[in-house]
Amino acid sequence: MGKLVNWFIALIGAVVLLAIAGVVLLTTFLNPNQFKPMIQEQVKKQTGRDLIMDGDLAWSFFPYLGLKTGHIALANPAGFTSGTFAEMSGATVGVKILPLLRKKIESSGVLLSGVKLNLIKSANGATNWVLVPPTAAQTTAAETTGVTATSQSKAVDFDFSISSIDVEHANIHWQDDVTKQSGDIQEFELHAKDVAFNHTFPLAIGFEFSAKKPQTVGKLNFSTEVTLNPEKKLYTFKEMAITTAVNQENKKFTIRLTGNVEADLQQQIARCMDLNGQMANVKFTGNVTANHLLSAPQVAGRVNLQPFDLRELMQDLGQDVSAIQVAKNASGDFDFSASQKSMNVQGKTQLDDLQLTKIKLHRIHMTMNYENALLTVNPLTAELYEGNLQSNANVRLTGEVPQIAVNAKLLNVHAEPLMKDLAMGNKLKVTGIGNVNVQVTTQGTSADTILKNLNGTSQFNFNNGAVQGMDIGYYVETAYKLATHQDIRHEDAGQTTFGNLTGTAVIRNGVVTNNDLLLSSPRFDTKGQGTIDLVNQRIDYRLESAIKSTSNDPNNSARDLAGIPITLTIIGSLQDPAINVDKTAIIKAIAEKEMQKNKQKVIEKAQDKIKNIIKDKLPEDIQKQVSDKAGEMLKGFLNK
Question: Does the predicted model carry a pTM greater than 0.85?
Fold first, then answer.
């Protein structure tokens, strides 16, 4: 038995020696460059392209059988500009000899250096990265690109172990002649150590990138611990970390992302767990699940945004923040799902403080839903100026220009501080406790465009306030004194107080039209109609004020003009409109009153004379009838 074992060991040794001798003879007497024509012919047959091998091929020997190449390039297909699709300055690969007998590949490493890829999409839509031979030009997309479940399910016959995989100084150029866009990945590096199935190994990738339209530059680094189990189709990426720095014109921000990823290709599902990230100043956590990976991928997940400064984020992203003075402590929770054809997002957001075009809002809450390119915000609530905002909005994003619809209610808002912030430079402002309803639609991406396209209706009601910048009593009294040639002693109070101010408005292309303004003040009842052009900041208004007749009013105007509508016009810029009183109407009203007084005196004198003439000539009851009838006839004559 011992001799049999010895003979068996000797036989194995002889086989190994023969294998080693064969490899020595192969590497000594067979020049690998002799295979170049055959390799080029096969590449041409399989891809329809020329393979350029102008570098030498060289063997390496025990304990690793290795091959080292020089410069290799693969040409572009016909119809593309001259140049190469892919090339590399050199590659090195080594395989241990003895483990091959056990169906195990042990490699000293794989090194690819100076790899260059030129990915081109021509103006007619053709691409240079589809590797098909001329005879397969009519192959359908499914035959060319499809991957069947059967081909993926084949078991791995060889176990392998690679001490290192390194890609150095690789560059990828992408060019789209349809959209006139291009981009580059430069200095691409990939490093992996101790690569093997069912064994965790480190993987690191890094590169710089740039693109045009818009001009963008940046850098990305990726690292993880990888485990590959092709037999069960399980792949894990633990302690994954991604860092990206992006500079895009006036935008500058950094993205950091960490988490763990598990992919099960047999179940076609992948999960990203313990997701932590930061984009600019926004920190977030969450999880993501992807289903149907190889057929029709669907993604779903949840993201939690920790409190951040919204204004700072918008500034980092290159947005115009001139209209936003404060946007502190924004946060939110979102659930999302997406497929190749749709995306849905639902969530709630909060914002502690917002100052927008100097308007101050606090404790803002929004419930949002995005589905089929329609963003719905309902409700949107906030506190402002000791009152409340209750609103909802829809933004349709199906076209190039967003379509916006807003319904809003302002409840018990203190108008004076609101107008101070909203219309500081305007001459006319309203104070009091206000309630305003607004139903508007618009479209656009800028404030000016949104204002120009503003359409809708509004209703407003203010109580116990004043119209600052206009004293109706002063204007009427001044016009009265001028009309009656009296000294002006009335002082301008600078405002008109009111108990109630109401009205409705129609908005068309940024122009507000109001025809039913009602203002009730202690001395006046005022009606108004006119327009306010929000786009050009102009006002054109006509007011009719009627003085209330009060027995204790010492002003002559109250007696002479009581009940008579006095016209005031407000025309010009919102900052400083001209306010004028129609003095002609006042003079006419005074003259009309004087005439009515004189008419009454004439009638009374005529009646007295008639009474004296018929006295003692007619019965008393007949005397009164004759006097009244004569008065009516005279009144009718004087009114003609």
Answer: no
